[in-house]
Structure formats: C-alpha cells, structure tokens
C-alpha cells in the first residue's frame, strides 16, 4: 500500500469521520439492479441479432424483433425484480412482527437468544451480561439485532420500485446499443452485424470492468468473464439461427 493511500485511510478512520459515516443512513446499492438489467438487455438484443443473422433474415427483422423484445423483456425484467425485492421486503416485515411478538410474550427467552448470539462471538462473564442488558434495554435495537443476527437481514430496507426502475432503465439503455448499427442503411447486413458484435463486446467488457472496480476485484478478469458469458449466449443464438436456416432454407 502506497503512502498516499495509507494517509487517506487514516483520515477516513479519525473518530469524527467515523462518527459522521456511521450516522448516515445507509443507501441501497443499485449496482446489482443495473448490472442485472444491463447484461440481460444486451444479451437479449444481441442474441436476436445473432440468431437473425445466422438465419439469414433482414436487418428490418432484426430491428423489429429487437425493439419488440427490448420493451417487452425490459418490462418483464422490471416486474420480476420488483416481485423478488418485494418478497424480501415482506419477509423482513414478517420477521420483525414475529420478533416483536416473541419479545412481548417470552422476553426471557429472547434475552437468552441475545446472550447466546454474543457468547458465540467470544463474549463471556460480566462483559456478556452488560451487552445483553444494553441491547435488551432498547426495544428497537433488540429487534434490529435479532433481525440481523438470526435472520441475516440488512438494516437497509429494500425498495422494490427503485429496484424495478433501475433494472428497466439499464435494460433499455444498454440493450439498445447492439441495435444501433441496424439503423444505418449505408452499411450492408454483414457490416452491421460486425459493428453490433463489437459494440456488444465492448458493453459486456465494460460492465465487467465496472463490477471489478466497485467490488475491488480484478477489473480485467471481471471484464473478460462477463464478455465470455455474453459471447457464449450470442454464439448459441447464432448457431440455432444458422441451424434453422440450413434445415429449412430461407425463412
């Protein structure tokens, strides 16, 4: 670690900076929603382009199918993500109600759960009892601790609408990129497909780079992995389209 990075970390871990950071309300991470929508959008439209090119269809067919699937699948992805996140939210709400009821009906049993949770973390004796007393003295902290430790739930409540929105936007914006060359009539179908392939490859690689950079893993490796996954999906679509064309002739 270089000296400037070390100094930056030291500044971030001063008591006043730590207190300010912990006082902030955690923001939901939208990267997973955007990556989900972006990758699926690009795969969807480029797979259509690959299959149509392999089957010998026209650029107009690529545009028609691509735009129709872009909108329909974008809405489908958004709805699916909304339902998934909404299910998580309902689970968290139900778990909170259960813990509130248990604390009301069997408080000593819930205190024992807190005691065993922190005992498993290595606390014992007076230190353990002090932690138990502190946690159970605050009903909100008590419930939040049980949700985190027993159910593995995050303290940041999920937002189904926001997740659906960002998935839809990423799907539409990124998914439209492989279709752009087919809007250029000056290029023949082969050149349109080549440019579309290059754009799709750039998109897949860029998404992987961003993932690697944000999650502090190797950006190059993440980029190549995402590019390989997207390329495999497109290759399957091309082979299916080409196989149909060979089997049944011009479509």
UniProtKB/TrEMBL annotation:
<keyword id="KW-0812">Transmembrane</keyword>
<keyword id="KW-1133">Transmembrane helix</keyword>
<feature type="transmembrane region" description="Helical">
    <location>
        <begin position="35"/>
        <end position="68"/>
    </location>
</feature>
<dbReference type="Pfam" id="PF01988">
    <property type="entry name" value="VIT1"/>
</dbReference>
<protein>
    <submittedName>
        <fullName>VIT1/CCC1 transporter family protein</fullName>
    </submittedName>
</protein>
<keyword id="KW-0472">Membrane</keyword>
<feature type="transmembrane region" description="Helical">
    <location>
        <begin position="222"/>
        <end position="241"/>
    </location>
</feature>
<dbReference type="InterPro" id="IPR008217">
    <property type="entry name" value="Ccc1_fam"/>
</dbReference>
<feature type="transmembrane region" description="Helical">
    <location>
        <begin position="193"/>
        <end position="216"/>
    </location>
</feature>
<feature type="transmembrane region" description="Helical">
    <location>
        <begin position="164"/>
        <end position="186"/>
    </location>
</feature>
């Amino acid at each position: 670690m270089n000296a400037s990075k070390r100094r930056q970390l030291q500044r971030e871990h001063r008591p006043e900076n730590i207190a300010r950071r912990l006082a902030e309300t955690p923001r939901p991470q939208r990267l997973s929603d955007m990556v989900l929508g972006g990758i699926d959008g690009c795969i969807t439209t480029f797979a259509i382009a690959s299959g149509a090119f392999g089957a010998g269809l026209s650029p107009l067919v690529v545009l028609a199918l691509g735009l129709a699937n872009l909108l329909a699948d974008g809405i489908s992805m958004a709805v699916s993500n909304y339902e998934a996140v909404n299910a998580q939210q309902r689970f968290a709400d139900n778990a909170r109600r259960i813990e509130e009821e248990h604390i009301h009906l069997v408080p000593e049993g819930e205190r024992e759960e807190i005691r065993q949770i922190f005992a498993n973390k290595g606390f014992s004796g007076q230190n353990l009892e002090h932690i138990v007393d502190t946690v159970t003295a605050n009903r909100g902290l008590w419930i939040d601790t049980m949700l985190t430790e027993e159910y593995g739930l995050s303290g940041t409540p999920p937002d189904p609408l926001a997740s659906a929105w960002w998935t839809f936007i990423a799907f539409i914006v990124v998914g439209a990129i492989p279709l752009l060359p087919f809007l250029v009539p000056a290029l023949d179908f082969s050149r349109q497909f080549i440019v579309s392939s290059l754009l799709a490859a750039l998109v897949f690689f860029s998404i992987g780079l961003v993932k690697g950079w944000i999650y502090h893993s190797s950006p190059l490796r993440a980029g190549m992995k995402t590019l390989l996954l997207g390329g495999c999906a497109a290759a399957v679509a091309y082979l299916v389209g080409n196989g149909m064309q060979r089997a049944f002739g011009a479509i």
